[in-house]
Every structure is written in C-alpha cells, then in structure tokens.
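INTERNAL AUDIT FORM
Audit reference: QA-55
Scope: verify that the stored structure record matches its stored sequence.
Auditor: D.O.
Record contents follow.
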Amino acid sequence: MIAATLVKRNREKAGLSQRALAVRSGVPQPVISRIESGREQPGLPLLGRILAGLRVEVTIRDRLADHRVSAEEAARSVAQALAGGNTENAFRTCLELADDLGAVTSIRLTELVGDRPALTGDSRYDALVAAISEDACERADIPVPAWVKEPERRVDRWYLTDIASLRELADEETPPVFRRHGVFILADELARA
C-alpha cells in the first residue's frame, strides 16, 4: 500500500488525472489505477517510471535501521546531558555507545563512527567518545576515522573512577587506546552492570 499512497498522493498534488499521468510516464492508465487502488504492487522499475512522470525523486538508502547509537549521536546526547548537569546520563550514553559499537558488523561500525561528532563541551567526554570509537575500530580491524585523532579528543589524564585507591589499578589495566586519549579505566568499567 506504500506504492498506492505514494502514487495517488503525488498525482493529486501535481493536479494530474490518471490519464495525464499515463501520458507523462508511458505507463497505461489501467495499470496506474490498479496501483493506486492497491490491487497491483509495482516493481521498482515501474514505480520509478511513474514517479519520474510525476517529477518526484525517491531515494532508497542502504543504511540499516538497527537503532544503534552512532558516535555523532552519542556526543550530542552527552552534550545535552552535561548541559543539564546530568553526568550520570552522559556516562550511560558512553556505555551504550561502547555496547553498540561492539555488537555490529565491521561495515555497520564504519557507518556508526564515520561522521565527525561535534564536541560535547567537556574535553573528558570528547576523549572518551573518541577512545571508545577507536577501540571498537581496532577490535574490528578497520581503519580509524580521522576525527578520532584530533588533538581536542585527548585529555591529560582522566580517571573514570572517583576512588583514589583504584587509580593505581586503572594505571595498570587501561588499554593502550584509552591511554592514548588520556582516559584511564578499570577493565570492567565500560561493561554494563
């Protein structure tokens, strides 16, 4: 029924009769009638001819709608959480990013980290988003996007733990990629409870 609605709505917006659309598109009027009534489902070539006759451009995207958070979306959510003073939600968003990037194919991962995220307003979280993204790329053995290596995606030293006695352990356990970004974590710190 998507094709029926698409054709009929755009034909009516264009102020065309089915007969006029048939002339413009080269598709017989009875076929257009069957499509608009839902009795016939056109293939893409036929639908394309009809829509070309209506001068309607349709784009088919090959992106998977899997509801995974991208680095760009995560940075935006972190910025909003931080603007509201909610560091817990900001960190939770980073956990979600780590989970999502670790649960997709390398092709999907490339899409999720491909767009350069805006800065969050807190250099520590910019470094964390970059470290999570770079870590996922290294694990998947795919190229790391250039934005990850920007100087503003690094901090001098940020421990995710507030417990002073655990910082020494974080010094030992922090993976090299996180260390490069100045983010020091415990081995299980990015795992969800």
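Auditor finding: record pair retrieved intact. The radius of gyration is 25 Å.
Action required: none
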